[in-house]
Amino acid sequence: MTLVDGPMAAALAQHRDRCNAIVANARRTYVDFDTTILENHIRGPLRDVVDSCDRISPGSGARVLAAVFDSVVELVGQHRLGGGSHDPLLAALPGLARILLDEPRKVFGSLANAVVHLHHCGLSVGEWLTRVTTAAADGNPTMTMRAGQVAAWLLGLSQYRDSALSVAATLSDAAFSAAVGVDGVTATDTLRRLRDNRWWRPGRTPTGAPSVAHRVGAFRGFGGQFLSPPRVGVRAGHIVVCSGPDAWLLHADAWGATLTRTEPQSIDFPRPQRLSFPRGSPGQCRRYRGHHGAHGAHQLSGAGRGARPMTTVTTAADARLEWQRRWSDALALWSRFTRLREPQLCTTTEQANRSGLDGSFAMIRLTDQLVVIDLQQVIMRNLVDLPLEIMGHEIGHHILCPANLTDQARMLARMRWALPGWKAPHRPWPTSTPTCTSTTGCNAAPACAWTRCIAG
Asked: Where is the stretch described as Disordered (predicted)?
């Protein structure tokens, strides 16, 4: 075991009773509190922070340690340190020593809360900390926190666009350049262009061709927000996405797209367009010149339901290889512990019909939990690029309603005696059927003439 020495040893000795009380309380609060992780951070990042603070202002390291120690212990108890989301923050703390000197508890708490939010949204915590560390070089905590807010917006939190633009106007050119992550940009000109065009990004040349900027939202079974296919409407100039009784505001710009909860009220949905056809006499259909040319670009069924266009997979044999490769990924959508037998990927509809698949292109059999896919129908419906979505959907039937009908009946038979007030369904015997008159009960069954004994 490596002993702690130098400024860190002096800081721990100065606050020994308080630190021991904090750790003892954490061990009572968190039953699986890992003191080894805390010791590693004391000997590593926290020691470096104390050393950095003492080099800037002698004696300040002990005060900074006392201010952040309880927060670090809490992060260990919440499993956010030691392989968790906040390891990059502790590693970056020595570079943030200048902004920790005045209000260490407030600054560290703000940074820790920001990391929680960034990690929850799936954004790069490391890139954000790099920009914040660069902005902290002048030692101004307020300027650094504002630069961090702008950096969070530019890394994908588009719901903060308006507030970040207001805050960015107060930044120096150096802090603004650090927040943007591009060297040499001037705050005045860049902010003007960002306000005028939400799709403009510094350092990027527009191609002029339409492109998909972001993908937002997903089925709730795959970790998304939508329980049913969403509808898009408008309220007060803002895009609102509705799914069932829930509604979200859609925030989008060149940097990201996010959904935030809102009330499903006063939303204007576009009216569906009605198609009109020329009338003819009953039972007749008029033909017009150019009809084939006007409709020569029909999409296959399924293309209008969000299916992506096919790329390189055009045959059932190619699709079979690709879908086999993605099977493990489809299982992992639900859990890394999900296990099912390999799917049956049928290259023809006839083969799928022989496996019991009829009237659809995918199913999971209740008899043996086998996923069956009709790849011929998948290709015809232009769904070949959706192996995760389709196979993950079928796996979901097993996850949400496991086993088969026989197992369900056995489970109910074993559980029924523990269900209060539950009465087993009983169908009375027909009145024309005589009942067993044996007075010896089931023990007489071997000698009983009845093929079915009611008592048994």
From this structure: 265-284, 290-309
* CA atoms of 67 and 103, how far apart (whole Å): 9
Q: Which residues pair with 252 in a beta bridge?
A: 257
Angle, vertex CA 386, rays to CA 383 and CA 390, nearest 5: 95
SS3 of 92, please? Answer: helix
d(CA 455, CA 236) in angstroms, rounded, equals: 72
Strands 256-262 and 246-253, bridge-based pairing: antiparallel
438, burial (CB in 10 Å: exposed 0-12, middle 13-18, buried 19+): middle
d(CA 162, CA 158): 9
Cβ neighbours for 183, distance < 8 A, ≥ 6 positions apart: 177
Name the 3-class secondary structure at 249.
strand
Residues of the chain with pLDDT under 70: 1-3, 206-208, 272-314, 402-405, 407-408, 416-456
Separation between Cα atoms, residue 417 and residue 421, nearest integer Å: 9
Residue 371 DSSP label = E
Contact present, 217 and 230 (Cβ < 8 Å) = yes
User: pLDDT value at position 421?
Assistant: 61
User: What was the pLDDT predicted at 343?
Assistant: 92
The kind and range of the H/E element at 262 are strand 256-262
Helices in 233-355 by DSSP H: which ranges? 291-294, 316-325, 327-332, 349-354
* pLDDT tens digit sequence for 302-335: 333 333 444 455 688 888 888 988 998 899 888 8
CA distance 37 to 137: 29
Diameter over CA atoms, the chain:
102
Rounded Cα gap, residues 352 and 281, in angstroms: 42
CB 141 within 8 A of CB 130: no
Amino acid, single-letter form, for residue 230: P
Q: Are 50 and 64 in contact (CB under 8 A)?
A: yes
For the chain, helix (H) and strand (E) counts, in that order, are 20, 7
Token readout for 424 is 């087993």
Q: For position 429, what pLDDT does the model report?
A: 44
Find the helix packing angle between 104-120 and 141-154, rounded to 10°: 0
Partners of 243 in beta bridges: 246
Q: Which long-range contacts (CB under 8 A, 24 or more apart) does 195-201 make?
A: 195/165, 198/161, 198/252, 198/253, 198/254, 199/253, 199/254, 200/254, 201/254, 201/255
In angstroms, how far is CA 267 from the centroid of its own chain?
26
CA dihedral 35, 38, 43, 49 (to 10 degrees): -160
- Token duo for residue 63: 């005060």
Backbone angles phi, psi at 308, to 5 degrees: -85, 150
